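Incident log, support desk, overnight shift.

02:14 A customer reports that sequence design results differ from what the structure should imply. Their input is reproduced verbatim below. On-call engineer (initials T.W.) acknowledged and began investigating.
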């Protein structure tokens, strides 16, 4: 994510027309986000709403908008983050708090006093969304074998490296390992904190699933 370019584009854009069709904007964004999440179950999708809380065009019922955010989360897990911005009118923090709560993110991020903090707000959101557990995608053309899965990590500007499997997550410590949510019936891969920290600090780092070869096990004799 190039936050600087995004912030520059937002600051250079002037709204046209009259009114704030908040419901239409939210419904359209949520439709796209939930569809994308359904089509990419191995991704984590979230929506970010930057607003002053005004809704004075189309459906202006905040409860209806909040209900749509709650439904999106309940049905697909899509979170809605709310960023409070100063659009020249009074900022309604009560409305923004209700929307953030419905979107399951707790409270709006306030950048009303300094719009240059928007980039930092987006980075904070990225870090929160980017968890360290990944649903196991269905391998193409083969049945999933939990003993033939390997995980690779590619930090930005660095070569790809294999991350060993660790049967006992309590032994993570400082090891760059991964483990299953349930070794007998796995549905997710989870990263040990040492790998998770690398991933969250590097916006361009990638985690990939490699199927078909025997799992590299950190418990194996070196």
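02:41 Re-run completed on a clean worker. Output:
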């Amino acid at each position: 994510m190039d936050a600087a370019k995004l912030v520059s584009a937002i600051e250079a854009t002037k709204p046209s027309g009259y009114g704030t069709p908040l419901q239409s904007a939210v419904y359209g964004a949520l439709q796209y986000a939930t569809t994308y999440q359904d089509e990419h179950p191995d991704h984590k999708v979230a929506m970010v709403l930057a607003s002053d809380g005004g809704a004075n065009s189309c459906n202006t019922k905040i409860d209806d908008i909040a209900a749509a955010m709650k439904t999106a989360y309940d049905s697909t897990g899509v979170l809605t983050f709310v960023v409070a911005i100063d659009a020249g009118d009074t900022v309604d923090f009560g409305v923004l708090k209700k929307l953030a709560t419905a979107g399951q993110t707790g409270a709006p991020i306030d950048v009303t006093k300094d719009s240059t903090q928007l980039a930092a707000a987006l980075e904070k959101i990225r870090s929160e969304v980017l968890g360290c557990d990944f649903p196991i995608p269905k391998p193409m053309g083969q049945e999933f074998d939990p003993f033939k899965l390997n995980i690779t990590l590619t930090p930005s500007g660095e070569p790809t490296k294999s991350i060993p499997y660790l049967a006992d997550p309590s032994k993570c410590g400082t090891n760059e390992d991964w483990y299953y949510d349930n070794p007998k019936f796995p549905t997710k891969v989870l990263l040990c904190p040492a790998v998770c920290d690398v991933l969250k600090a590097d916006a361009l780092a990638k985690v990939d699933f490699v199927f078909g070869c025997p799992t590299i096990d950190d418990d194996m004799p070196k």
